[in-house]
Design goal:
heterodimer, A: 457 residues, alpha/beta, nine-stranded mixed β-sheet, 33% helix, B: mainly alpha, two-stranded antiparallel ribbon, two-stranded antiparallel sheet
């Protein structure tokens, strides 16, 4: 299309103008004569500095795993088990899980993750995470949006807004089985960012992923019949366009309909686990009832990032072990251990790990003291997470909590720094990734945030 | 005696200023202090810094003593009160210096040196004066901003094409166009115009019969008659009420963290619809929503109506799981102040919660004065408490004589008794558990070990809270009470024990009418001196607030007083936006200096003046606008005009727009013949108190909330936060987290997937097909032209075009048996169906 207008329209538009004019969708620039890819708000965008990671798999352990039983070895806590804790009326509870060092890096991990431990040298373990509020809903929102007080765009939405998509026939941000509570859709929402950046949900927390789907993805008639029906709808659209000659809204609608049609064709293929080999499925623990569900989620995540989805979140619950810690934590860990190992192995084998940032975390940690006879309460002063792949130092142990694991004491990483660091690895400067709304520029990290350079390779 | 430390500090400064440091003191400074300042601080805190952070310079004595944006950093002699010491000790994570990138926390020995130095009186031999720091946010110029000046009446300008205008509006619009050498395109054809005005005024399409009648009515007053009929239709209030509900961030659940139902929110919704239908003067409408409880009422019915109106202040999103009641109270007042500011003034006053507004002349003091009004207000939003709903309140009881409708069915008196007994039993159990485990109970340790675990106890609390909430909705004979969300003034003095937060006995500290302290950086831990309740000073002379009231009534009167330059402009501009898809001020909710300037300032002012002179009548305003020739322009594209004004800010044509979410769904129901105009009872009211969706204990499931498929108007679908009806959320229903005078209009594939594959659209397509076939009976292939034309009139509001007919025929030829539902869905899926042009 050689519109005589494009020459003087193009240069005066910023990306924000374009977004506004397009109403957060498609259409405008296609009309003004630019290539369609440059037009879409999902088109890949230039980064602020060279990116170490192109995509993210965010593994969220809803309910908050106990750091002192998994990644944060506390010999003094074990030695003092049963003694009164530093907080009035509490009793310390040592971990019953055996910790050993793994790999050349000597990463401390408990026996709960025998398979993942084989990847110890790939992991960058942060043992000095901190958050604010010891309540799930607030902490969960804080982890996902940076704020538990206000409705803000999610981490995935910001990432997609900053980077664009690698495959415009697919959603750019997918959340696999997100919780309905704990802030619900806000955790993958776009808030004031254009709706195109919001996460697409597959499945529901607490229900099996097998058979779960993207809303309205499956046609109710055969492909041919639907195509014929769309041809008719497009004829109506084009008749209007012919009358109007120029109508970006109609053009956008034509494009959007075709994109949905392609998505409907392409996404089920991407999401089809049947095309994976038996060996791959085994690698993820699919076929074993203990690991089947999370294995499927991890494999789905790999399929999606491989096909170009920018940000995939996978939720696993429930890690809220207020009682029966030993049995319940063991079963939660067993459900994810083999799939996590499988995911890292598979990503590496496909050459994806080097530029895929994998993050495994909960919304906070758990108290070193007992709750009841055998449980742990919420702890915000210290918790642990691990990252792997794109741009983090493999085999690194970063930060430390105090002797019992209550408070981070070395290299504290508040959530806002985690966000700044993740954006940094994606090539985005958290201070420059802004969006103007209600009269001011908003950031994921608001007015704070430091990149934890020590963990960046 | 609060001023004492400050005075002492000033004296200390004065004293030391007079005395130069001794040689010993100078030596200490040069050895221990200056090198660290140079190395660790000057990068950000000196005259040479690239960007002086926090308005603080430390490279002169002058600057160090003056302090930064947040006040003094060194109180000579008092290390504990000196922010500099707090900062280098890393005691406050907001104020930890030097930052990590400058090497992080200083060694302990250095910190001790600084402490000692401050105790010595912070001797400082350096000379020179600190650079004047530009006031952080200089808003003095902002006072001249157009929106803060009173609206001016101006005579409609003369135009070259004197034959074109029909009224004042057209004069203003045409004059602006002519100034740019432009002229308007032609008028819209009658069918387009009728469909436009139907959607704009009622959110529904005209029926084919109404279209035909209008097309054949050649009288000059034909359009005017239609407009008057539509304005008088109950459908008007439903559509325009929905606009206001966006502004009022209306929803039927708390949202945010725990998301529980607001089963009485619908009363406020219905109040808004009725107010729009009866054309309640907007100033009155505003006053009732802010202070209906404080206004005199002629009878119980009016009293009830005014109480329901205050639901405006109660329906906002809330973090019910907030553990600190003080924080909850302050956040609630903030949400109200911010919403009132944006809804009525178009100002983002919430920005001034933590610091003076960076762009608009609203200081943190102004904000605090406003927040005090709401901290003096008891907000009654209900909710049952329970596992994570730590904050709850009562509801407002409506006078029985008002005989308002009640959704809940009566409870048998026996049942009420049983539940009361159960609740008393639970209370006794809990009292015993608490006593057993009280810190001063000698057997506490033993009691803690046996019996119930924490989860069981929480369950008891939850059951009790739920029962309590349920019972509070009934009279003791089992009759349901008439309750509404709303507000009341807090008492003047603390009365007997009031129902507090569900767990623990902690209170907010804002139990009575009073002023709000100014919270440093908005942090409730940093409460400063109280600021008298009042209104932002810049806008008008504000009335005094008597000490025995919250000040809401004064606020409401001030907002709607003749001297207020914003309220009338903001609502007039929103009405324009809702009719044209773009306001005369494009940023409908932001009239501050970061907002946009008006495209037609004189027109906006003249409309605002006339609006207030006309008794704040929205219907008269709307009538005036839609009868203008400007409103009736065609949506025709034109290259030259487009090049000059691509956004159509000057209104050279009517901008085609996508319909809003509710209108799209309602239009499908109307076309398929399924629309039920009788307002259904709110599903959430029927569900009662409890969590929305999620895994446990919900009273309404995610599916019920998001898929609710009654055939009533979309306005009446469940309005739970976080779980909106899919048919609406996919087309940009706002999430009700904030005032929203202008909706987003996006075009995303999820919409296309919804149209192509959802159950709702499939169902409506089937019904439309059946309707069209029934209108012209025969086999599938019969009466094609009549049937297709009928379908087009029902969906597109016009006759089919040749290309469309040909495409539909192709579909029919392919598979006659399923062709009609396919044609119907194709029409629903097409862009012209959801366009208002």
């Amino acid at each position: 299309m050689n519109s005589p207008l494009c020459s003087h329209i193009t240069p005066i538009f910023t990306r924000r103008d374009a977004l506004r004019l397009m109403g957060g969708g498609f259409g405008w620039l296609a009309f003004s004569g630019l290539a369609a890819r440059a037009a879409s708000p999902l088109a890949p965008k230039p980064v602020h500095h060279p990116a170490r990671a192109k995509r993210v798999i965010f593994l969220c352990m809803r309910g908050a795993p106990s750091h002192v039983d998994t990644l944060d070895y506390k010999p003094k806590l074990n030695a003092d088990s049963g003694k009164p804790g530093p907080r009035p009326g509490t009793r310390l509870l040592g971990s019953t899980f055996k910790f050993t060092q793994h790999g050349a890096s000597g990463q401390w991990m408990s026996e709960l993750f025998p398979a993942l431990a084989k990847k110890a040298d790939e992991l960058c373990v942060v043992r000095s995470m901190q958050t604010d509020l010891p309540a799930h809903p607030q902490a969960y929102l804080k982890l996902h949006t940076g704020s538990s007080q206000f409705v803000r765009p999610s981490l995935g939405a910001w990432s997609l807004y900053g980077l664009g998509s690698l495959n415009e026939n697919l959603p750019g941000f997918v959340s696999i089985t997100p919780p309905g509570g704990f802030g619900g859709v806000q955790n993958y929402g776009s808030a004031f960012l254009p709706a195109i950046y919001q996460g697409t949900r597959i499945g529901t927390d607490g229900r099996a992923i097998a058979g779960a789907d993207v809303a309205n993805l499956r046609p109710r008639q055969s492909g041919d019949e639907q195509r014929a029906e769309l041809d008719f709808a497009q004829a109506v659209n084009r008749a209007q366009l012919a009358r109007d000659r120029v109508n970006p809204e109609i053009e956008g609608a034509i494009e959007s309909l075709e994109l949905a049609f392609r998505m409907q064709t392409e996404l089920p293929g991407v999401m089809n686990l049947d095309r994976e080999s038996v060996a791959t499925k085994q690698l993820y623990g699919i076929g074993n009832p203990t690991t089947e569900d999370f294995g499927r989620k991890c494999l789905l995540a790999r399929q999606l990032v491989e096909a170009g989805v920018r940000f995939v979140e996978v939720t696993h619950g429930n890690w809220d072990h207020h009682f029966n810690l030993n049995a319940n934590l063991r079963s939660s860990a067993a459900a994810v251990d083999t799939p996590l190992h499988g995911l890292l192995t598979d990503l590496a084998a496909r050459g994806l790990l080097k530029d895929t940032l994998v993050v495994w975390t909960g919304e906070f940690g758990r108290t070193p003291h007992a709750e009841g006879s055998e449980g742990r309460d919420h702890n915000v002063g210290a918790f642990s997470l691990w990252m792997a792949g794109g741009g983090v130092k493999p085999g690194l142990s970063y930060g430390a909590s105090d002797d019992y694991g209550y408070e981070a004491v070395e290299g504290k990483v508040p959530i806002v720094d985690l966000h700044a660091t993740m954006l940094h690895l994606l090539g985005l400067d958290h201070e420059r990734l802004t969006f103007r709304h209600a009269g001011r520029d908003f950031r994921l990290t608001d007015t704070k945030g430091n990149v934890v350079r020590e963990i960046c390779a | 005696m609060k001023a004492t430390p400050v005075i002492l500090a000033l004296l200390a400064v004065a004293t030391h200023a007079a005395e130069p440091p001794t040689a010993e003191e100078t030596a200490f400074f040069e050895k221990h202090i200056r090198p660290m300042l140079v190395e660790k601080c000057y990068d950000c805190h000196s005259a040479k810094a690239e960007k002086i952070k926090g308005g603080l310079t430390l490279d002169t004595r002058d600057g160090l003593r003056r302090g930064g944006d947040n006040g003094q950093v060194v109180i000579p002699g008092d290390a504990e009160k000196s922010a500099l010491i707090t900062a280098i000790r890393y005691q406050d994570s907001d104020l930890a210096m030097p930052p990590k990138k400058a090497g992080g926390k200083l060694p302990d020995a250095v910190i001790r040196d600084f402490e000692q130095w401050v105790k010595m009186g912070a001797p400082d031999p350096r000379t020179g004066s600190a650079p004047p720091i530009a006031k952080k946010y200089d808003t003095s110029a902002a006072k001249n901003w157009w929106a803060f000046q009173p609206p001016k009446a101006s005579a409609p300008p003369t135009v070259k094409d004197a034959a074109w205008p029909r009224g004042d509006i057209d004069h203003f619009v045409l004059a602006a166009l002519e100034e740019k050498g432009l002229s308007p395109v032609g008028d819209a054809d009658k069918a387009t115009l009728l469909r436009r005005v139907y959607f704009d005024l009622t959110g529904l399409p005209p029926s084919p019969d109404e279209l035909r009648a209008f097309l054949t009515d050649q009288s000059p007053a034909a359009f005017e008659k239609i407009v008057d009929r539509l304005l008088a239709s109950p459908r008007f209030g439903e559509h325009w009420g929905r606009h206001w509900l966006d502004v009022a961030r209306y929803a039927e659940s708390s949202g945010r963290d725990v998301n529980v139902t607001f089963p009485n929110a619908w009363r406020y919704r219905d109040y808004v619809v009725a107010a729009l239908n009866e054309d309640k003067p907007f100033d009155r409408f505003a006053q009732e929503q802010l202070a209906g409880d404080l206004l005199p009422a002629a009878d119980a019915r009016q009293r009830a109506e005014q109480l329901v109106a205050t639901g405006f202040l109660a329906v906002g999103a809330k973090s019910l799981n907030e553990t600190n009641p003080r924080q909850f109270a302050v956040d609630l007042a903030d949400e109200q102040a911010d919403s009132v500011g944006q809804a009525f003034l178009g100002l983002t006053v919430g920005c001034a919660r933590c610091h003076d507004h960076k762009f608009d002349p609203v200081s943190q003091r102004d904000y605090t004065a406003l927040a005090g009004i709401f901290l003096s207000t008891d907000t009654r939003f209900g909710t049952p408490g329970g596992v994570q709903g730590r904050n709850l309140s009562r509801l407002v009881e409506l006078p029985a004589e008002a005989r308002v409708p009640i959704v809940a069915a009566p409870m048998a008196a026996e049942k009420f008794k049983g539940k009361t007994a159960r609740m008393e039993d639970l209370s006794a159990q809990l009292a015993k558990i608490l006593a057993d485990r009280a810190p001063n109970n000698p057997n506490r340790e033993r009691n803690m070990q046996g019996g119930m675990n924490a989860f069981d106890i929480v369950r008891l609390f939850t059951q009790k809270a739920e029962l309590e909430a349920e019972l509070s909705n009934y009279e003791s004979d089992g009759r349901p009470k008439a309750l509404t969300m709303g507000v009341a003034d807090k008492p003047l003095t603390a009365t007997t024990t009031r129902r507090g937060p569900s767990r623990g006995q902690r209170t907010s500290g804002f139990e009575i009418i009073g002023d709000s302290p100014l919270f440093g950086r908005g942090d409730i831990a940093k409460a400063g001196d109280p600021v008298p309740r009042g209104m932002p000073a810049l806008l008008a002379t504000a009335p005094e607030i008597p000490p025995d009231t919250s000040g809401r009534l004064q606020l409401a009167q001030w907002l709607t007083s003749p001297g207020n330059p914003l309220t009338s402009r903001v609502i007039v501009n929103r009405a324009w936006h809702w009719l044209f898809g773009r306001g005369l001020v494009a940023s409908t909710d932001n009239f501050g200096t970061t907002g946009e300037r008006p495209s037609h300032p004189e027109l906006l002012d003249s409309l605002a003046k006339r609006f207030t002179a006309d008794g704040w009548s929205l219907k008269r305003l709307i009538r005036q606008i839609v009868l203008s020739r400007t409103y009736q322009l065609a949506a025709t594209h034109d290259d030259a005009r487009f090049a000059a004004d691509p956004e159509n800010a000057l209104l050279w044509r009517h901008s085609p727009r996508r319909l809003d979410a509710e209108s799209i769904r309602d239009a499908m129901l109307a076309a398929s013949g399924s629309l039920d105009l009788k307002p259904p009872v709110s599903l959430i009211a029927k569900a009662g108190d409890g969590p929305v969706g999620g895994p446990r204990n919900n009273v309404i499931t995610d599916e019920q909330a998001s898929q609710a498929m009654h055939n009533g108007r979309s306005l009446y679908l469940p309005a739970a936060r976080s779980v909106p009806p899919e048919a609406l959320s996919v087309f940009d229903l706002p999430d009700a987290s904030a005032v929203r005078g202008a909706r987003e209009v996006t075009n995303v594939p999820a919409q296309s997937l919804f149209l192509m594959n959802s159950e709702f659209v499939t169902q409506q397509s089937g019904r439309l097909a059946a309707r069209v076939l029934a209108a012209y009976p025969g086999d599938a292939a019969a009466h094609f032209d009549e049937r297709f034309a009928h379908a087009c009139w029902l969906t597109l509001g016009r006759a089919p075009e040749a290309a469309e007919t040909a495409a539909a025929k192709a579909l029919l030829a392919r598979k006659p048996a399923t062709a009609w539902p396919a044609i119907a869905r194709g029409l629903f899926t097409s862009a012209p169906f959801r366009m208002n042009r």
